Amino acid sequence: MSADGPLEGACLCGAVKFTATLPSLVCAHCHCTMCQRSHGAAFVTWFAVNRACFSVDEGAEHLVRHASSDHGSRTFCGRCGSSLFCELDSHPEQVDIVLANMKGPLDRAPQMHIFWSDRAEWMELNDGLPRLGGPTGTEPLD
Ligand SMILES: [Zn+2]
Ligand SMILES: [Zn+2]
Questions:
Q1: Which of 113, 120, 124, 136 has the smallest count of CB within 10 Å of its CB?
Q2: Are 27 and 108 in contact (CB under 8 A)?
């Protein structure tokens, strides 16, 4: 794994292409209900980079930003619906990016589960990673 190389990503239809320059700041599996619904999945694996290390290289005109709460937004491709980015007022200096849309390996493995309290009960997970949850989604549970 490269520690500082550019990592390229794209949406499902390929109209939107973007680059994240590593190192990443964090990588976590998120089990919040908004992630579940926007992806149609039990959980979503996100990583974050500094905003300055992120660029949309093609297809910016296809990006649709949805204010998913009063403290953050989610951006998806208006052509194919791929969920792409999440931006939160709590850490405006960084951009959260869906790991599954990237074409190469990240510089770190997923470190934790967040919003574990909101997880889909039909998903069995025993990977030994820390489980954080509670009202903020990031409080230690174990
Ligand atoms: Zn697309
Ligand atoms: Zn989430």
A1: 124
A2: yes
